[in-house]
């Protein structure tokens, strides 16, 4: 059994090494995004968390507590913990996620070592520090998650639980982080733990905003007598796909085909203007779509 597992790991490593050049060439945008997100996150940790003895969430939060209590270097603990977690969940994660997670972990570890000696400005406005620090860390994390990578830590654990047992990522992340914040009371005190809780809340809001704000689209439904002209405008001018859905008027009893499409906010304004000028009696419904997956939008992978 051990021999089989070792052979499996070797095969996966060979596949991973082969795919590295392909990923580097094909995903340079992801490289820039993960690099920027990791830098922003690390800045938030080293300038708004560690100097003020605030607790943090995830593996970094555990490392921060060990650093406060035992003096264990934060970069060392983060790198070792992530190596162990990646080795544990290697078979459950895709090669792409593993690659960008390894890169993200390596980068934040290196940046933590570089920023340890930086003279960050100090302030007595601890409430402001907690909110701003949480928002900065959350935005950095959200940018990385939006690109399809991760910064390691408990993200690896919850991704594993989701794939293995169908667990809800948000719920289990919250449970893990509440345990860490609860333990932090005995290390940093009740007041700092409360500031840490506020920072984690601000971070979660920033993550949601960073992940979803760039993916929001408008779901548009149009009912009109001249359906074909609307389809032509959407496909030829806006360069988007359109779907015709059979519909039946509840009052009139007439067949009224309905055009459905997903557009950017700017394109939805253009379509609204087109209908107001050419078909003012058309019926149009617009609603926000928080995420759109498929051709022309975000990849399903």
Description:
- 66% of the residues lie in helices and 8% in strands.
- It is an alpha+beta fold and 301 residues long.
- The protein has two domains: 212 residues, no CATH class; 73 residues, 2-Layer Sandwich (Alpha-Beta Plaits), CATH 3.30.70.
- The chain has a four-stranded antiparallel sheet.
- Helix 3 runs antiparallel to helix 4, helix 6 crosses helix 8 and helix 7 packs across helix 8.
- The two termini are 32 Å apart.
- The model has no long low-confidence stretch (mean pLDDT 80).
Topology:
Blueprint: H1 2-26, H2 28-48, H3 58-70, H4 74-89, H5 95-115, H6 126-146, H7 154-165, H8 169-213, E1 217-223, H9 227-237, E2 243-245, E3 258-263, H10 265-278, E4 283-289
Antiparallel strand pairs: 1-3, 1-4, 2-3
Helix pairs in contact: 2-5, 2-6, 3-4, 3-8, 4-5, 6-8, 7-8
Shape: elongated
Beta-strand level of the residues, as a percent range?
5-15%
Residue share in helix: 55-70%
| DSSP summary: helix tally | 10
Task: Please state the CA-atom Rg, rounded to the nearest Å.
Answer: 24 Å
Class computed from helices, strands and strand pairing: alpha+beta
In whole angstroms, the N-to-C terminal distance is: 32 Å
Largest sheet: 4 strands, antiparallel
The strand count comes to: 4
Along the chain, the helix and strand elements come as HHHHHHHHEHEEHE
- Give average pLDDT, whole number: 80
Strand order of the largest sheet: 2-3-1-4
Number of domains: 2
Query: What are the segments in which pLDDT stays under 50 over at least 5 consecutive residues?
Result: none
């Amino acid at each position: 059994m051990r021999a089989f597992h070792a052979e499996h790991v070797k095969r996966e490593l060979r596949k991973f090494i082969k795919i590295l050049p392909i990923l580097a060439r094909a995903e340079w945008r992801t490289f820039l995004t993960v690099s920027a997100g990791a830098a922003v996150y690390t800045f938030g940790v080293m300038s708004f968390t560690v100097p003020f003895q605030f607790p943090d969430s995830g593996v970094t939060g555990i490392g921060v507590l060990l650093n406060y209590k035992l003096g264990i270097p934060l970069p060392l603990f983060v790198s070792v913990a992530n190596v162990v977690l990646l080795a544990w969940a290697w078979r459950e994660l895709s090669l792409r996620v593993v690659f960008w997670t390894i890169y993200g972990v390596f980068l934040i570890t290196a940046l933590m070592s570089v920023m340890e000696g930086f003279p960050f400005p100090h302030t007595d406005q601890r409430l402001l520090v907690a909110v701003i620090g949480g928002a900065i860390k959350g935005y950095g994390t959200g940018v990385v998650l939006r690109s399809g990578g991760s910064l390691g830590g408990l993200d690896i654990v919850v991704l594993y639980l989701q794939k293995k047992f169908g667990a809800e990522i948000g719920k289990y992340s919250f449970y893990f982080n509440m345990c860490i914040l609860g333990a932090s009371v005995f290390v940093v005190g009740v007041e700092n733990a409360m500031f840490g809780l506020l920072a984690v809340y601000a971070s979660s809001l920033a993550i949601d905003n960073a992940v979803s704000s760039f993916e929001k689209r408008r779901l548009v439904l149009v009912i009109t007598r001249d359906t074909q002209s609307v389809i032509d405008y959407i496909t030829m001018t806006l360069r988007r796909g359109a779907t015709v859905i059979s519909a039946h008027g509840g009052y009139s009893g007439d067949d009224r085909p309905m055009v459905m499409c997903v557009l950017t906010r700017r394109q939805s304004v253009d379509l609204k203007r087109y209908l107001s000028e050419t078909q003012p009696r058309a019926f149009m419904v617009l609603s926000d779509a928080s995420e759109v997956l498929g051709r022309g939008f975000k990849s399903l992978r």
